[in-house]
Write a structure and sequence with these properties.
alpha/beta; FAD/NAD(P)-binding domain; 8-stranded mixed sheet; 6-stranded mixed sheet; 16 strands; 30% helix; globular
């Protein structure tokens, strides 16, 4: 029997690994993907699925960008990836038959929810509002409005996607494109090099354990999220400095998320639940009494400077795509595009995100 061989081995079966594998297979590569547990059950499963390029840039900028109300390379990357989502969702629908329930302007399908994100201001928002004002000056849409008597800003071009449906769609698209998927199959970079010509490490928060020298500084940042079933509908994503409420098509609302550095501990806490419910009730008073159906913790992969690490490493034929921190779902389309181009066409990764860059920033400490 002829031994199976692939041109590329992908390590990690989250949305980043799946999307990269799909694009590589579409480009003619033979691809195998190895996932140590169940495909898509880590950060990709735990996320809320917001496509919040503008909100994240204003509220949670990488630490070295906090005083720069300009369009940084990272902000541009997020905006570019956000703009890819309508076509990306349409292509996935055609390839897999699964609607990823994208809610944003230009989405291939629609429902009762309003696209966009409503940012609700509070008394601690001076810096955030300065960032939003700069975005408006740069030509991005930021519209003044109010919510329950409070100042609010509508970001009409932001959105959300059902991240768990995104995983399902990417998995099926990979299978139909000929990607060989291996679940419950832990593998190291050294082992993977024996399976294929190139190795792509997409291990998320576990990347540094799989290739310590080539995923420098990647560490897990825990985030707890609640899923509630309210009596009344929340028809648009609500976002503040302390909490976000993300309505799903089936009427559930996700409430998130905490941000705590505690290693690989994925336990949930009563303290986090109470904090999230209190913060949610400051936006929607009835949230305090919502029925909580699910409570989980995900581990975000954070780099030293808070930026993704993409492309070639010091090891020959080993590339990485990790360190997406709070923006893994948002950056999925552009990451897959850049990585596929780098591997198949020797394309260049923007230097700000190159895995070989010197990381001089320091990630803002978490509680």
């Amino acid at each position: 029997m002829k031994k199976s061989r692939s041109d590329i081995v992908v390590i990690g079966g989250g949305v980043i690994g799946l999307a990269c594998a799909w694009r590589l297979a579409q480009g003619g590569a033979q691809v195998q993907l190895f996932e140590r547990n169940t495909i898509g059950r880590e950060a990709s499963h735990a996320a809320a699925g917001m496509l919040a390029a503008q909100c994240e840039a204003a509220v949670h900028p990488p630490s070295h960008e906090e005083t720069l109300p300009t369009r940084s390379a990272f902000f541009e990357l997020c905006l570019q990836s956000r703009s890819l989502y309508p076509a990306f969702a349409g292509e996935l629908l055609e390839s897999s038959g699964i609607d990823i329930e994208l809610s944003m302007q230009g989405a291939p399908t629609s429902d009762w929810r309003q696209p966009g994100i409503l940012y609700i201001s509070n008394l601690r928002d001076e810096d955030t509002l300065r960032h939003f004002a700069a975005q408006r000056q740069q030509g991005l849409r930021v519209e003044d409005t109010e919510f329950a008597g409070r100042r609010a800003l509508l970001l009409p071009d932001e959105g959300q996607v059902d991240n768990r449906k995104l995983v399902a769609a990417l998995r099926l698209a990979c299978e139909r494109a000929g990607v060989l998927l291996h679940e419950n199959a832990p593998i190291s970079v050294d082992e993977a090099k024996h399976h294929g010509h190139k190795v792509l490490l997409c291990g998320g928060a576990w990347s540094a354990l799989l290739a310590p020298d080539d995923a420098r500084g990647i560490r897990p940042i825990a985030g707890e999220v609640l899923s509630a079933r309210p009596d009344e509908k929340v028809d648009r994503v609500l976002y503040s400095r302390d909490v976000y409420l993300v309505p799903r098509r089936d009427g559930r609302v996700l409430i998130g998320a905490t941000m705590v550095e505690r290693g690989y501990d994925k336990t949930t806490s009563t303290q986090a639940r109470e904090f999230l419910l209190e913060a949610a009730s400051s936006l929607v008073p009835a949230a305090r009494d919502w029925n909580i159906e699910e409570h989980w913790t995900g581990l975000r992969p954070a780099s030293v400077d808070g930026l993704p690490m993409l492309g070639k490493t010091a090891l020959q034929d080993v590339l990485v795509a990790t360190g997406h921190f709070r923006n893994g779902i948002l950056l999925t389309p552009i990451t897959a595009q850049l990585i596929a181009d780098a591997i198949l066409n020797d394309g260049e990764i923007p230097p700000d995100f190159s895995a070989s860059r010197q990381t001089t920033g320091v990630l803002t400490p978490c509680a």
